Amino acid sequence: MTPGIPLLLLCALPxxxxxxxxxxxxxxxxxxxxADFAELVRLGFDVDDHLGLDAAGNLTVYAxxxxxxxxxxxxxxxxxxxxxxxAFYAARAAAAPARSAVGSMGGFRTLAEIGQExxxxxxxxxxxxxxxxxxxxxxxxxxxxxxRVSTTPTVHDPAKPTAWYDxxxxxxEPMSGESLLQFVDWLGANYGVDPAVTRIVESRNLLFIxxxxxxxxxxxxxxNPNGGGMWRKNRRNNGGGSYGVDLNxxxxxxxxxxxSGSSGSPSSEIYRGTAPFSEPETAALRDALAAMPPGxxxxxxxxxxxxxxxxxxxxxxxxxNALFRQYGxxxxxxxxxxxxxxxxxLYTANGVSDDYHYGAHGTYAxxxxxxxxxxxxxxxxxxxxxxxxxxxxxxxxxxxxxxGWAEQQPPVWxxxxxxxxxxxxxGETWQVELAFRNDGAAxxxxxxxLSSSDPLVGVSGGPAPLQVPAHGSGTAGxxxxxxxxxxxSGAVYSLDLGLDYDGSAxxxxxxxxxxxxxxxxxxxMEVRGYGWSVSNATNWSxxxxxxxxxxxxxxxxxxxxxxxxDNPAGAGTRCWVTGAAAGASAGTNDVDxxxxxxxxxxxxxxxxxxxxxxxxxxxxxPGSALxxxxxxxxxxxxxxxxxxxxxxxxxxxxxxVRFRLQDFVTPSDAMRLRFRAMxxxxxxxxxxxxxxxxxxxxxxxxxxxxxxxxTLGATATVFLDGPAGAGWQLLWSFGRTAGQAVGGVRxxxxxxxxxxxxLAGTLGADGRARQDVTVPNNPNLAGRTIxxxxxxxxxxxxxxxTNPLPVVVP
Length: 810
Known about the structure:
810 residues, Alpha-Beta Plaits, 45 strands, eight-stranded mixed β-sheet, 16% helix, alpha+beta, elongated
């Protein structure tokens, strides 16, 4: 270094620069076969390997005027779609709101500003974020900065699993580096607040390298200070007027000409260099990997809305491809990115970082390609926060699963004393074995403890050994739980579950609901519409039907937008679905606006606590996860006002969710539900499905529920839940009282006048019965309320009344 020149100023020094490049246009070329792509690569053109063939069958090439002359000479037909692409990117950035920018280069940070942000993060979170440190220097002598997030931030702790995050191998992909910086900031802000984030920071070495290619990135600033620079490689002088090696073809795993995913031509954008690790940038990362081998890693790139994993060098799978697919599905569940090997979703690529991470170190390595075609290499600054948010869940999973990670599963209960009905209830004593799943790359070895601060729940036993193999399941315990007779059925009791492993001790809730769950209603969407209403009638509106499978690429796409089946955990074939017919593009039978699905009214006023459960599927592809959402709402005043239960982004899989309705509204006799699917603006493949809706209450007495419309002539279904095999009678009246006791029968009798029997039957072996009832088509019933109540095992030892139930005939 020249004496007296601060190291930071090297970021601004031009070192042996070639003349500024000519403006690059975005050029479209009709492709007659896949061989056209290979031929363009062979000839050294900058072919967009992110897009492949667009919907019209065209390839995208970035070419200046001289390169366009070469295209014509080679016999390719083409046209310019965007002239002077860097200027287009810069103009788009200038038009974005100033507040959306994070830096001065087209809204993104310059190399110097990346270093300044690393300094800020270290100052803001000094207990967990290290000062930046250099892993080595670039071909032009610039430092390759890194920082560590850990409770020992200045020292790598070999006892802790490592998660690795790098970015900007390719200098024209600024969103990749920004996503890492924002993730560090998010970790710092949530440490000590979110128990999961706290465990991550306490139990991991998290290494961040936001700019692997400082020379190429700085060159883009020098040539295009307002953003939009299209330089990709590093800045090695190859001689003959050629510069740069593709750093992501320079790793020593299947490097060389024997594979087609790189080039030996120095002028090629995928030039692999003269030898593996010929470049000081990749050599520095090689040495860091050897010193700090990670359990999982991210090498961030842009763009294409993809999540890539090994192998990339050839059309072969790793021996752990099923596990990689499982990880890929989880990491893209929120954003809808297509996941797969490089050759499945893009192209073959050899000598790449992912293959080296996995092949040399056994690291589960992933490459997100952040952003879609409309974002390009330099997204609008207005998109920065959304793009960072859509990869954050995947980044978090990489941190979690770089080592062991114990996640609660349904526990195993054994009754020690009680009534023998298989449900924990007040006055009983139970033994519980805690169950855990570990999706991490290493085993969990530690202890689990269970404690209670509630005098109505006593806990004994433990701490217990906690041993869960990598990618496996395990248990801890047993613990003994004694429930006081004064405890309340249906109440939620929250115990403290302590987990101590990997050097981190955290506490998370372990919730118990006492009492027997009693079914009030179950709509499997198979037999009838039950009075559900739809807000509009289009080819993409809600309908009760058998869904047809739709993917992001027709019948062969990698991401399923609409499954070809209803909820697999249920029975039958039908569900509520937005446009059941298959489609292959935005606007073809998928949601093209907003459609609402509203339930019939139902009565819950007899219960203080009710659980709602349903299975849903919502896909919003390939747009941003922040673009459109599935909305579920509940009303307790017949639909006059609504309270949101959930509003979720893309989750293109069947998922069952549960809500304690009393946490949102007071249960009443005028309840309704509604569900919204929308694509506003109409820019995505969007589909929603709903199935297997259940309402459950916890009660010591048998229960009565009804589901369906109650207009004249309509058919609804009555649900009873009580002692197995007991007889029942369904009674009715036009009025109800405050309730009175009847000798030999538990509960109160609420109907006015003498009992009139409407139906009778016997409960099944599961203690349940469902019976269709049709409202008489009698005009005199319109506007009246009919009260129902059942008596179970009348005259027997288990005789009891159910709750009263109003049926309003509109």
